[in-house]
Each structure stands twice: as C-alpha cells, then as structure tokens.
Amino acid sequence: MGVIANPEHRIGIFIDIQNLYHSAKHLHGSRVNYRELLNHLTAGRRLIRTLAYVVTSDPQTGEDAFFDALEKSGIELRNKELQTFSSGAKKADWDVGMAVDIIRMAHGFDVIIIVTGDGDFIPLVEYLQTGLGKIVEVAAFARTASGKLKEQADEFIDIDGIPKVIFRTEKSRKKSPVKEKQTTPKKYESRKKTV
What we know:
This protein has eight helices and ten strands. It is an alpha/beta fold. A six-stranded parallel sheet has the order 4-3-1-7-8-9, sandwiched between helices. Strands 2-10 form a two-stranded antiparallel sheet.
C-alpha cells in the first residue's frame, strides 16, 4: 500500500551514504545523483531537513569533492572518521548515530524517509510507526535491501526505478553496452498525480 502524497507533509530525509555507495557500486559500477534522488523522494512535499552520514577515510581519494557536492545539493553532513584497529580491521558504522538523530528529530516531521537497505533499521522503523505515529518510507536498491525492511516500511522506493539517479561511469558502460531501461513503478506515477 503506497502513501498518498500530501503537500503539507513535513519531510525529513536521512541517508546512509556507505550503504548507498556500496550498493550502487556493486550493482551498477556507478554512483548516485543525490539531487535527483532528493527531488524524487520529496515529491512536492515540504522538505524540512536532509542529513547524510559519511565516513572520512583519506582526503586523497577525492572524498572532499564528493562531500562538497553533497552539501551543495542541500544535504547536511554528519561526519565520522574511519576507525582502524590494531588487527588491521576497519569499521565505518553510523547505524546507532543515525537512529539516535532520527528519534531525536522525529517530532519535527510527518514523514521520515530513511535511505538505506540495512535491516538493522527495522526496530527503528517499527518504533517510529507505532511509538511515534510517523509515516516511514524507505528508499534503497531493492536487490540489496533487506526484505523485512521493505515490508515494514509504509512505502518502499526502489532507487533503480527512479530516472536519472544512477550516474553511469565509463567503466560501467563498457561492461554493459545495452542501456538498462529505467521504469517508474505505478505507485510513483500516482504519487506525482496527487501532488
């Protein structure tokens, strides 16, 4: 059952950058156009705040330019440094921090959009719905998203179905000479008509 878009709904968008980055890279060998993603997710509703959770590893990788581009798209960044342990293991996890921010800010939104496919967020989605009475939408790549997370959300948005959201790189074009057809699921067509 899709959510009927209401232009008066106050929207908060929370983006798990690591999850989205790795899904786009694994599935398409490409990147996400965050400005197009935000336009689609907002769907004519009142966007109050957008936060993205990023991990700093090495400025020489060009991540600073990426972070600047996110900020220019109107996205507020929450930044954490990559942890490296003595064993050589690395950890880059924002799950708890992201969940705490969402709960802390939830009172200011009618609809909370969580951009991740990580099943660890299922208890958060349940709490937002039943404990706080919020509408929760989840946006992710369907092929890499948790099935239970998709089921729990009031609406699941498959990023693969959003036109112009995937940046095709030269490398991904060479691997796949046939351009994949992007389709808009019927529930999004009806969403656009109601706005």
